[in-house]
């Protein structure tokens, strides 16, 4: 089983994103990735294009106020999860019609599609944990998000 904590870097947790819609949210996340040195400025437009293209096929909102935008990104050798929290919830075509304020962006190399699907499934499962949900929304630092993720994974191992 994949441990999500192993796929999240401290510099990939953004707790103050501002966006009015899902396209702006994806742009905000990728801009922060560039600012944090996680993504090159030259690669940002291509990654954003892939994410918005994937989103146009079907919304990646999963309910519980969360979305899991994802795409294959072969510039990575291992999967990466970026966690973003929006300062105000946005409409995101969610199955439960709840607005989205949590984003778990998943990127991974195309050569491991089974792992990509396993990670998506694990994120969805953990987001159903009410305590984790509350801790993510209350977190005041990337360290608090990582602590919440460690805790929920220990409960659902």
Uncertain regions spanning at least 5 consecutive residues:
none
Strand content: 15-25%
State mean pLDDT (0 to 100 scale).
94
The CATH H-level homologous superfamily: Mannitol-specific EII, Chain A
Helix coverage percent of residues? 40-55%
| Number of continuous helical runs | 5
The CATH topology annotation reads as Mannitol-specific EII, Chain A
- Helix-strand string: EHHEEEEEHHH
- Give the C-level CATH assignment: Alpha Beta
Largest sheet: 6 strands, mixed
Overall geometry comes to globular
Task: Characterize the structure shown.
Helix content is 42%, strand content 24%. With 157 residues, it is α/β, with parallel strands linked by helices. The protein has a single domain (4-155), classed as Mannitol-specific EII, Chain A (3-Layer(aba) Sandwich), CATH 3.40.930. Strands 1, 2, 3, 4, 5 and 6 form a six-stranded mixed beta sheet that branches. Helix 1 packs antiparallel against helix 2 (44-57) and helix 4 runs antiparallel to helix 5. The termini are close together. The mean pLDDT is 94.
Give me some keywords for this one.
globular, 42% helix, 24% strand, alpha/beta, 5 helices, 6 strands, Mannitol-specific EII, Chain A, 157 residues, six-stranded mixed β-sheet
């Amino acid at each position: 089983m994949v441990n999500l904590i192993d796929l999240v870097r401290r510099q990939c947790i953004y707790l103050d994103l501002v966006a009015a819609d899902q396209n702006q949210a994806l742009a905000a996340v990728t801009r922060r990735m560039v600012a944090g040195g996680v993504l090159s400025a030259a690669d940002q437009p291509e990654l954003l294009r892939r994410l918005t293209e994937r989103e146009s096929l079907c919304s990646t909102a999963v309910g519980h106020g969360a979305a899991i935008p994802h795409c294959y990104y072969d510039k990575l050798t291992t999967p990466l999860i970026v966690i973003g929290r929006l300062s105000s919830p946005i409409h995101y075509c969610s199955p439960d019609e709840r607005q989205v304020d949590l984003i778990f962006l998943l990127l991974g190399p195309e050569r491991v599609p089974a792992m990509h699907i396993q990670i998506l499934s694990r994120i969805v499962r953990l987001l159903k944990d009410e305590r984790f949900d509350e801790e993510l929304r209350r977190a005041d630092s990337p360290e608090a998000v990582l602590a919440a993720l460690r805790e929920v994974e220990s409960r659902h191992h």
